[in-house]
Fold this protein.
Amino acid sequence: MNDNQHIRNFSIIAHINHGKSTLADRFIELCKNKKIKKSDAQYLDSMIIERERGITIKAQCLRLNYTYKNIQYSLNLIDTPGHADFSDEVSRSLDACEGVVLLIDITKGIQAQTIANYKKAIEKKLAVIVALNKIDLNIEKDNIKAEIATLLKIDHFVEISAKTGNGLINLIEKIIENIPAPTIDSTKTEFSALIIDSWFNNYTGVNCLIKVKSGSINVGEKIYLLDDNKTYKINELGIFVPEKLTMQKISVGEIGFLNLNAKDLSKIKVGSYISTKKNTHHEKNIKTITPNIYANIYPINTDDFIILKKAIEKLSLNDASLSFTISKSQMFGSGFNCGFLGILHLEITKERLEQEHNLSIIITPPSITFKIITTRMKILYISNPSDIDKINDIREIHEKMTLTTIISQKIYLGKIINLCQEARGIKNEIIHNNEKVYIKYTIPLSELIFNFHSKLQSITNGYASLTYDLLDYEKSDLNKLSILINEKKIDALEFVVHKSKTDKTSQELIEKMVNIIPRQLFDIKIQAAIGKKIIKRETIKALK
């Protein structure tokens, strides 16, 4: 076992599709002197969907050994997600690191998530090494370097090709030289560790990825979960190299996994601390992950409800950010109201239910959490629009806001500004840099989740990237819009919309309903209503 001074804990952070997982493959090949088969490419992306989409969803960690100046170093590499939906996964991973490799694709330059991840690393006071990827393409790099110097205030880079491995030795040596060893608190001798991630195995139960903050732990010892002071026995310890390697002991500064004699993953919260000593004081835990959007999921075949229930429960065992409660619909029957980090998280969950569990499902349009203040100044939070009908004394409705950052080519600036204004955005800042433009707007979260990203990609021909930070709630002029079929309200088709968009939204919804509902032997009346007031109406005429 290497001593603490020869450990380097670092993450690769970047915008989506800038080459993080490919770079991790090259690290494995170099450190293990082993060529990765094409079928095993993107080694750390273990989910089928991760490989199909070319994205990382869950944080992964592996230990690699590298000899530098006749000293063997343990490099703990954490591969993190690049998509904005999974930014909390990035934050959790960074809490286990002393440094990061900020990877930038020179064919694309700085993107929205590049800046967001860089800011996270700086806020956590981590060492940052900038790696310019895809140098094998022989593209002019001066503009990219000038862009990085202007926006990130960095003027030193490592040039690499994650595809060919060029420059990789230089990058590893920079990691060893510039990223510090883990900090040790010499006043603490008892074992304590931060839970970075957790997952469930049907045979072994709950497993945790941990960063050891002090002391050491052996197989068979008991630990306390400091959130509730419950005790658990350590059944197994180990690391990933990237294959699973069991060990008898893990010590301070190391990142590894442990298996607990526990069957309920919900009790093991990511960001919590574990220790061999009860009531040990630690710094503030990592923030709890909360859903940003909600949608109802129903089985097309109502007899599949139990199968859907078991499938969602199984997914939630390894996805702490997926929440769910039972939901009943007059139209669709029994299903679940599920909470997601964002649209991509929703899409991935849908794909996993369909691919891994062979389910046919219906998903309602997503909604967000709204803050309601009653006439008695009571504060309520609702994520299901139909729940508004249960509140009789509403004084104000507030909606979640975002600080949205968009990076694109200058030629699309006018179209992007129009899109932001249509989304009720308020301009914060516009920065021009060479051929690119950096745009910041305050935009309601409800506007972002309804096709904003697809519209942005359409008007920029795909040459735009977006990220957002959640802000507080703000008072807004909102209405609950209901769709009725033959004067019967459809609970799955209720939405909270801004007053300025009520007419347009209701017309679009009714037109969609007219196009998808087949004609019958009787007239079908479709209406849009605000409260009891009918504001739009169409009739599907009966067959003759």
Observations:
- Residues 479-540 form a domain with the Alpha-Beta Plaits fold (CATH 3.30.70.2570).
- The chain has five domains: 4-178, 192-275, 293-363, 370-476, 479-540.
- Confidence is low (pLDDT under 50) at residues 45-58.
